[in-house]
Recover the amino acids of this structure.
């Protein structure tokens, strides 16, 4: 099974809704070295958690074959949701342990479908070779949307 490294980053930080941007990089090893696809996009009126979910979903939509994903994120929320809560939410009809509707349920449902096709592991808050570039690119998009 082919390994794909998925790197996601967003400039949207904090609990309140605002505009920002995300960027992702997909990396696959080939016989000629790593091959990458990247994308950056503006986001409007979203929370940090929504931005994290949307950025990973956008990246996963670019992967068309089953593979082993290594997902790099600085979002503890995203990683915890995937590793600890997602299976339970699905079994509990998208209700939390307290019986309330899961926050960002629509985004989580989409992510669950996209992840279902793959094996995956998460690397949380680990620096990588694309990090500085991703921060720079996402911040450029964020500045452009503020002008």
């Amino acid at each position: 099974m082919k390994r794909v490294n998925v790197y996601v980053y967003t400039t949207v930080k904090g609990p309140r809704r605002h505009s920002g941007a995300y960027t992702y990089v997909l990396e696959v090893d080939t016989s000629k070295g790593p091959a990458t696809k990247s994308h950056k996009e503006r986001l409007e009126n979203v929370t940090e958690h929504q931005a994290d979910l949307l950025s990973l979903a956008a990246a996963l939509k670019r992967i068309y074959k089953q593979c082993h994903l290594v997902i790099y994120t600085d979002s503890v929320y995203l990683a915890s949701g995937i590793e600890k809560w997602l299976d339970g939410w699905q079994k509990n009809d998208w209700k939390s342990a307290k019986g309330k509707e899961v926050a960002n349920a629509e985004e989580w449902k989409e992510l669950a479908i996209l992840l279902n096709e793959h094996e995956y592991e998460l690397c949380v808050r680990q620096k990588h070779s694309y990090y500085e570039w991703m921060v720079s690119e996402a911040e450029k998009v964020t500045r452009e949307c503020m002008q």
User: Anything to note?
Assistant: Helices lie at 48-60, 76-91, 105-116, 131-146. The longest strand covers residues 33-46. The domain at 3-146 is CATH 3.30.420.10 (Nucleotidyltransferase; domain 5). The mean pLDDT is 94.
